[in-house]
Design brief:
The chain has 554 residues and is mainly alpha-helical. The protein has 22 helices and no strands. The protein is 77% helix and 0% strand.
């Protein structure tokens, strides 16, 4: 017998081929770096989705004949679903297995992305965006937990840094990737991009990610709390968006707003009495936690509000193509890569208060600068404010992580991280909803006067005045490429034939001037919010020192 040949031991049983394959599969599963690949692909899908849609909004509106409120729900439906289900998604992973819930989230995100791409109308697109948010809430909270279970402590921070960097890269490159796809392929392709990413993430996860769960997890999922939180937020956001055409003081808007406040009040009562609440309210007894949460909301309010409406301004009013828009928004998104480490250094050196206050002061400067934009403002008058917002954003997000997580006990770090993530999505919802309502209200109240001041004939002005939803997106009703042909035909008929170049120019100038006035009003509201937030920054304190993976994870 050869020396290399195995020697049979009396009484031993030779493993079968199937047992050997199972042993090899078990050994392969749990590969930490392949686990990192799978979860990085997952967060890249979600990160890309957060910024590519902003560039595609004008094209989606034109192709699906969408109103401003419809476009807002494309963003807000996704963010709302993500906001109210993130904590639940983490609890489901703890109970049933993080790999299992992560893979379900990846599959759901890819399939709902396909649904978005195949949507024949804006209503269908909104439904699939909401479902996409649900899938994202299953995917996102389990990514960091999988990394923590796969990597030894010595390599964990490095892995979390790569994980966070992949998300930052996706966010920063989103506008350019979105612009290229929208301009050279179609708006549907921005959603189809998730299919190969999702398929690859699923294959890697199923083959090489090891399952993990909290074996001692016996708590409830607080389904009533989830229902009350989602219902209350939906009613409030619905009221904000409907204020665009109903008016801020209308009974309709006030009724829905009041109903939303009542339902959120019931949510607070439910959480106060629940044995295992979705959001334990006692963590808000610490001043830095509630102040930091509000500051996160303001930071994301600014980010999503500006991304949404500056995207409309750059394409519809300023005339940039989708690719040009993506490139010109790069100072905002790419600055995250610089501002986040800077925020980390400042927070570690001086505590969270100085970078928070500095970040909010920078937001004041940026909002005020954007309030001076005009139709013909050159790019040199735009990009410094985009860059300032990106700088401010990184300072605020890292320092609020310390303010929130550092002021709760270690064992409640998961709840605090979920609170911060929920506040981020909620801020994005409020940014698009509030800014949109302000702009639309300004258009409704001022468009007729602007048309009259330019001597647009009454019959023509009456038709243009009914196109306020279009003007609220920065589109001129005489723009043959973006305005409905029925509207252009109506204007021609009211003017007794083809409108003269002078009349066309008057309608265009009035429309753009009204949109810009609304944009200015929205930016001034942003100035006020940032000033209040800077004062709130005085209330936060450092708390306990955070581990590196806590900072990167949040």
């Amino acid at each position: 017998m050869s020396a290399s040949s195995p020697t049979a031991t009396p009484g031993a049983t030779t493993p079968s081929g199937r047992e050997q394959r199972d042993a090899r599969r078990a050994k392969a599963q749990g590969n930490p770096w392949l686990t990192l690949v799978a979860v990085a692909l997952g967060v890249m899908m979600v990160g890309l989705d957060g910024t590519v849609v902003g560039v595609a909004n004008p094209t989606i509106a034109a192709d699906l004949d969408a109103s401003l409120s419809g476009l807002q729900w494309v963003t807000n439906g996704y963010l709302l679903a993500l906001a109210v289900l993130l904590i639940l998604g983490g609890k489901l992973g703890d109970r049933f297995g993080r790999k299992k819930v992560f893979v379900i989230g990846i599959a759901g995100f890819a399939l709902t992305s396909l649904g978005c791409a195949l949507s024949p109308d804006i209503g269908t697109l909104i439904v699939f965006r909401v479902l996409q948010g649900v899938a994202g809430a299953l995917l996102m909270p389990n990514t960091l937990a999988l990394i923590r279970s796969a990597f030894p402590p010595a390599e964990l921070n490095r892995a979390v840094g790569i994980w966070g960097g992949s998300s930052a890269l996706a966010v920063a490159s989103g506008p350019i990737i979105g612009g290229l796809l929208v301009e050279h392929v179609s708006w549907e392709s921005i959603f189809l991009l998730n299919l190969p990413l999702g398929l690859l993430a699923m294959v890697v996860a199923l083959a090489w990610v090891k399952e993990s769960k909290d074996e001692g997890h016996t708590g409830s999922f607080d389904v009533p709390g989830v229902g009350l939180l989602s219902g209350g937020l939906f009613l409030v956001v619905w009221a904000l968006i409907k204020a665009q055409d109903k008016g801020w003081g209308s009974a309709y808007v006030l009724l829905f707003a009041l109903a939303g406040v009542v339902v959120l009040g019931l949510f607070v009562l439910r959480e106060h009495r629940a044995e295992d609440p979705l959001l334990p309210l006692d963590i808000f007894r610490e001043r830095s936690v509630w102040a930091g949460t509000l500051l996160v909301v303001v930071g994301f309010f600014a980010l999503f509000g500006v991304l949404f409406f500056i995207g409309l301004y750059l394409q519809n009013t300023h005339g940039y193509s989708p690719v040009q828009t993506g490139v010109r928004m790069l100072p905002l998104t790419a600055m995250f890569v610089v501002s986040a480490p800077l925020g980390g250094w400042m927070t570690e050196t001086y505590g969270p208060r100085p970078p928070l206050i500095l970040g909010m002061v920078l937001l004041v400067v940026a909002f005020f600068g954007l309030s001076q934009l005009e139709v013909d403002t050159s790019y040199n008058g735009q990009w410094p404010y985009f860059l300032i917002i990106g700088l401010s954003f990184g300072l605020v997000i890292v320092s609020t992580t310390q303010a929130i997580l550092g002021n709760v006990p270690v064992e409640r770090g998961g709840v605090a991280g979920g609170l911060q993530s929920t506040a981020q999505q909620l801020g994005g919802v409020l940014g698009t909803a509030v800014f949109g309502s302000i702009i639309a209200s300004k258009v409704t109240s001022s468009l007729g006067d602007e048309l009259a001041s330019r001597n647009v004939p009454g019959p023509v002005a009456a038709i243009v005045d009914k196109a306020g939803e279009l003007v609220s997106q920065g589109v001129s009703p005489v723009d043959a490429e973006k305005a409905p042909q029925s509207l252009i035909a109506g204007i021609a008929q009211a003017s007794g034939g083809t409108p003269s170049p002078q009349l066309t120019a008057s309608i265009r100038d009035a429309s753009y001037a009204t949109f810009i006035d609304g944009l200015h009003a929205a930016m001034y509201v942003g100035v006020g919010l940032a000033v209040v937030a800077a004062v709130l920054g005085l209330l936060v304190s450092r708390g306990r020192e955070l581990e590196d993976d806590e900072v990167a994870g949040a």
